[in-house]
Amino acid sequence: MSELPRFLDPHILSRISPIDLRARVVVEGFVSGLHKSPYRGFSVEFAQYRQYTPGDDIRHIDWKAFARSDRYYIKEFEDETNLQCFILLDRSASMGYGSNGLTKLEYGSYLAASLAYFIRQQRDGVGLITFDQQIRDFLPARSKASHVYAILSLLDRLTAGEETNMGKPLHELADSISRRGLVILISDLIDDTSRTMDALQHFRFKGHDVIVFHIVDPDEMTFPFTDTAKFEDSETGEQIMVVPTLIRDDYIQAVEHFMEENRTGCAKIQVDYLKLDTSQPLDFALFFYLSKRSHRY
Amino acid sequence: MGLTFLTPLFLYGALGALVPLLLHLIKRQRARLHVFSTLRFLKISQKAVVRQQRLRRLLLLLLRMAACAVLAMIFARPFLKDIQNAAFAGPAPKAMAILIDNSYSMGFGNRMDLAKRRALELLGDLHIGDQVVLMSFSTQARVLREIGSEHADLAGLIQTRIRPSYQGTNYIEALRSADDQLTLSNFDDRMIYLISDFHQAGWDRQATRWQLSSDVQLKMIDVWDERDVNIAITEADIPRPLTESERTQDVVVRVKNFGTSPFQGEMTLDVNGNAAATKRVSIPSQSGQVVTFRQTFRSDANTGKITMGNDDLPIDNTFYFTVNMPSPLRVLIVEERSTRGSRSSAGYYLSQALGLRQDPPMTVDVRPVSDLTSIALGRYHTVIMADVGTLPRAAKTRLVEYVKSGGGIMIGQSRSVSPNIFNTSFGELLPGRIESIRPKDIRRDQFEALADINYQHPIFQPFAGPHHGDFGTARFFKVARIEADSASIVLGKYDDGKIAILEKQLGRGRSLMFTSTLDLSWNDLPIRGVFVPFLYQSVDYLAAQGSFDDRRSTYYHLVGETVRLPDDVTTVISPSNVPITIERSDTEMSLFTETTEPGLYTRRGAGDEGHFAINLDTRESDFTRMDLEEFVAAVINPITESQEAQEMKSQANQMQNAEIERRQRLWWYLSLFLLAVVLGETFLASRTHR
Questions:
Q1: Among the listed ranges A165-174, A189-198, B237-246, B290-299, which one has the minimum average pLDDT value?
Q2: Which residues lie closer than 8 Å to B102 by C-beta, 6 or more apart?
Q3: CATH of region B95-225, choose from 1.20.5.110, 3.90.25.10, 3.30.565.10, 3.40.50.410
Q4: Is A80 within 8 Å of chain B by CB?
Q5: Residue A238 forms contact with B (CB below 8 Å)
Q6: Residues of B547-581 as b/e, b for ≥16 C-beta within 10 angstroms?
Q7: Which ipTM score applies to this complex?
């Protein structure tokens, strides 16, 4: 158990190639770590009986088995949810930023790959849409194993694109996905927050459940620079002289305000929101996903 | 006023101010570029910060540059020159010398009025703080107002204190004085305004190569007007009547017309206040004429005046003179004993030589030493000790009194001289003491010759030129070796370097000592051609030290010359009837220096009265123009002063600057400013980030 975080460290993962192997490492490591998890195995297809232990939900006690054996047994099921999950991965230029050798896009890709792999393990259909200011790639949701490899293949060759415009591609997607499902947005959300929330609300309006993984780089949060330097906007190419020591506090305050704005915005429209910085292990995201999924499905 | 530095080389240190600038520029080039996800959050506050920081950096840069520059300035020791005028606005103050010619040529026409107008115009151009020295000049310069910044009284001085004098012009002397005055000013802009009629006589281009200081400028203001008529009596030659038969002489008068128009008029000769003769003269322009009057001078002392018609400069139309019958020079020749005209005696040679003198005639008495106590020495102009080896005490006492009261004594060696006896008996009369007589026995094949003679001395001046007498031909077989007194002057030496002739002042008279005999016994000088002129010169020289005898005086002097007066004169009456008291001195001659105007001066003494004449130096009457360009080229210093002068000036400036700087101590204030700058820099740097 103590070695698990090591395998799930995104920086270590980045050294493993190809991406399907990375996803498998994440997911299998995660699954093996879930043996104590109360969330595992609550699906529609019967899998096995397990003796009741205090703390289990009494709704899952098989009363018939109790009548036969005078013992409490819990029924465990395999997934038969028929869930369609769409992973929306932001590949705008700002996602190409990363400190310590791991970009937000790479981290997002690992996360997307891990989620796709994990969702496929649960027999759910999974699709992948990448976008920047428009939709760049669209893989519809399928539950076939080969489809996962198509997703992983796409993620493996993904590069950062152009400027972000969350509104337009998300609205298009909301219009185009007719069957209700789960929408997972992996993005740094660097856009106008109101536009982003508007687009997410569009998904909600269509009946989708939405989970937002807000990817940030640690440097974006702490702004650890010291020397006066020119900073260039990765999307617009604009350059300004910056005195980091003087503006750090204001910067952090602005970033936190941005985060809070997104978090509260998401909360208002009942969108699950998780901020992930690229130094965090990916299983944290999977826990979050699983937690949210278990509540809803 | 200007900011000047005591040690300006330190100002090169101000280049250090470029170091912060260079560092700033270099550092600026090294700014790193970070590609960041978004500038969205940076822009929120960065604009103001960057602007503020940019300003701070700029200010910091300026402070650092200022600190370097101020540090260099502190070491350069700044000070304000001429701080008293710092408050006045306008052009930089200047120092000027206004020189107005008041020679008598300026009395021609309206030249002086014009000169005054020009000077007043210059005053009108003065600014507050300008320094002015006002001077008039003729042959000498006269400062009417020392250099200073007060201008109020200058116009009055020009109007009242400047009028034509009776003297000539000396431009160089005037410029030299003005140049000296301007050195008292600290101003860099120094100018001499020379207001004159610029005639040639005022500049002797051969006399001196003096030039103005290198930084002094010269502006010449010409008040010349077209010449009309100017006649002047330039000279009158009146042969001296020596005897009763020569009382009638030709008075030869030279007159010149310096004008551009011919002149016709009358010339009048007045003698002793009476019109003696009149002649009509006609002189073309730019030419001269000689007019001769035949005049008998019946009195032993006569005054005279020659006058011509009027023109625009009448002052030079009159010539004054005195004609006096000369009285003979009386010479006493003293011998050891009476020789009664023996041809072998020194007295014989001397009396024969001196008796030939005609101008002035001489009366020569030859007397033995024993008579010195009884005869009246005051009657004689000169005493010659011809062959005296011993002098009685009483005789010596009388001779000392005689010399101290202005008499002259010439001491020759005696054939029987004994050094000790000679030295003792003559005592203080001797310019030197005899040490020995060499050789003891005369050998005609061994002799000394006069080799080192002071030809600057009045006795020997006539022999200075070539073919004017050769003392080297005389042979001296026996001479006295002399140790000269400290107060003595050696006039000649033998070829072995020993003293031949020397003199000393004793009271108002002089003693002249010859180290050989004045006859043929020790040398053959008396038979050489130079002997008689040498005697005349010696007697004249010694007699001139004695009492004044105006019968031998010059018959006129020029304005500005010194005139010797008889000892008993107490008052001199000038031609304008101004009495001038003469201070008497027992030891010095009576000299009259205030010969400031032409005319006949009257001297009054103890029951005696006489006259002397003063005339203009008529070179001033010649209005021939000076070549102004040549003059300017000669006096303006085109390059620099001599190195020595430059060094002296530089040293003087440096000392003066050091004193001014010491009083001001601007570097103290600069140090405080630097401290403020450094503190400001520290404060600002702590608030400015890399």
A1: B237-246
A2: B112, B136, B137, B138, B162, B163, B164, B165
A3: 3.40.50.410
A4: no
A5: yes
A6: ebbbebbebbbbbbeebbbbbbbeebbbeeeeeee
A7: 0.74
Containing B60, the helix (H) or strand (E) segment is helix B43-76
* Residue A31 pLDDT exceeds 80: no
Sequence ranges of chain A with CATH classification 3.40.50.410 = 5-31+81-296
A159-188 residues touching B, CB cutoff 8 A: 188
Question: What pLDDT score was predicted for residue B645?
Answer: 61
CATH code of the domain occupying B329-544: 3.40.50.880
Distances (CA, A) of B471 to B360, B493, B533: 25, 11, 11
CATH superfamily of A5-31+81-296: von Willebrand factor, type A domain (3.40.50.410)
Min Cα distance B678 → chain A (Å) is: 23
Residue B257 CA, chain-centre distance (Å), reads 31
Helix boundaries (H) for chain A? 4-8, 10-13, 19-32, 63-69, 104-121, 145-156, 167-176, 193-205, 218-222, 244-268, 283-296
Q: φ and ψ at A123, to 5 degrees?
A: 65, 15
Q: Could you tell me the pTM of the whole model?
A: 0.48
Which H or E run contains B679? helix B666-686
Domain boundaries, chain B: 2-76+653-686, 95-225, 231-326, 329-544, 556-615
Q: How many CB pairs under 8 A join A and B?
A: 88
Are the CB atoms for B685 and B30 separated by under 8 Å?
A: no
Cα–Cα distance measured from residue B428 to residue B485, given in angstroms and rounded to the nearest whole number: 10
Which of B32, B33, B35, B38 would you mutate first to test chain A, the one with the most A CBs within 10 A? B38
Residues B431/B488, Cβ–Cβ less than 8 Å: yes
Out of A228, A241, A258, whose CB is closest to B690?
A228
Within this chain, domains B95-225 and B231-326 share the same CATH topology = no
Q: What are phi and psi of B273, to 5 degrees?
A: 85, 0
Average pLDDT over residues B246-269: 87
What top-level class would CATH report for the domain B231-326?
mainly beta
Residue with tokens 């002399």: B482
Residue B625: DSSP 8-state:
B
Q: In the numeric block, which tokens belong to residue B27?
A: 């550092």
Given a contact cutoff of 8 angstroms between Cβ atoms, the answer to whether A275 and A216 are in contact is: yes
Kindly give, in sequence order, each residue whose CB lies less than 8 Å from that of residue A57, ignoring residues fewer than 6 positions away. Answer: none
What Cα–Cα distance (Å) separates residue B435 from each residue in B81, B421, B423? 67, 11, 9
Give B354's Cβ-side CA count (13 Å radius): 27
The answer to whether A235 contacts chain B (CB < 8 Å) is yes
pLDDT, tens digit, 9 for 90 and up, residues A65-83: 888 888 888 877 654 456 7
